[in-house]
Design a protein that fits this description.
Blueprint lengths: L4 H7 E12 L2 E12 L3 E5 L6 H8 L7 E6 L2 E6 L5 E3 L2 H8 L2 E4 L11 H11 L5 H14 L15 H14 L4 E5 L7 H16 L3 E5 L3 H7 L2 E6 L2 E6 L1 H4 L6 H8 L3
Parallel strand pairs: 3-9, 3-10, 7-8, 8-9
Antiparallel strand pairs: 1-2, 1-4, 4-5, 5-6, 10-11
Helix pairs in contact: 4-5, 4-6, 5-6, 6-7
Bound molecules: adenosine-5'-diphosphate and magnesium ion (MG).
Adenosine-5'-diphosphate binds next to α2.
Amino acid sequence: MNLNTAANVQEYLVEARGVSKSYGPARVLNNISLGVRKSEVTCIIGPSGSGKSTLLRSLAFLEEYDGGEVLIEGELLGYVDRDGVRVRAPLAEINRVRRHVGMVFQQFNLWPHMTAAGNVAEALVRVKKLPRREARERALHMLDKVGLLEKADAYPIRLSGGQQQRVAIARALAMEPHIMLFDEPTSALDPELVGEVLQVMKTLAREGMTMVVVTHEMGFAAQVADRVVFIDKGEIAASGPPREIFHDPNNSRLQQFLQNYL
Ligand code: ADP
Ligand code: MG
């Protein structure tokens, strides 16, 4: 009996197979393959300009790639065929699956004219079509989860960067994503505000959220990641459990990169 195929397709919640991308002559992603299982935390590390954001955006279908394919929950939504022709699922299909993918960026991108609760509730009303009252209730619940219930009616300008980022996380979580993608969520923060955001992310990880986190916080990666992926010049130059990645004397590119964090 062959138990292989169907089970394997479902194995990864998100999977990149040989994803490549160029901007003009510059190869930004070179044949990246990566799979994330349910409840796993994958941290992506690497130098600035190595392609980390491009990869994350490709996983969320925010970026067109020119080679390879991305699967979300086993669903193939787009691929590039042998003749280099890009084939995509219908937009409605892509949006349906993309709704299961939450994203948090370096810049919090809150709407300045809406309160914290308003920011979290907005997509619930517009996209999920929840009645306002229900949306606000869920927004308050999510703000409570990130420790900001008492700031529900504050406008972003009244919030610290760390609080704004926690609102952005609450906003993503309110959509009930199956996977969360974080692109340097603490890089824009003053050092003393980094911890409160990482704490929220640690709690999420502990609760079993599937996460892909681009980060320069090596302590977080060492502590929380099931797997660390080191990207250098658009390629996966190392990948493995943190205890291997952070103590691999044989990989000189990795050692050179990590030296900046000691
Ligand atoms: P990282 O997130 O690791 O810093 P990025 O994925 O943002 O790296 O960028 C990888 C490379 O792609 C960089 O050299 C960057 O300059 C280039 N790049 C990113 N976006 C664009 C774009 N829209 N047009 C041209 N080059 C780009
Ligand atoms: Mg980046």
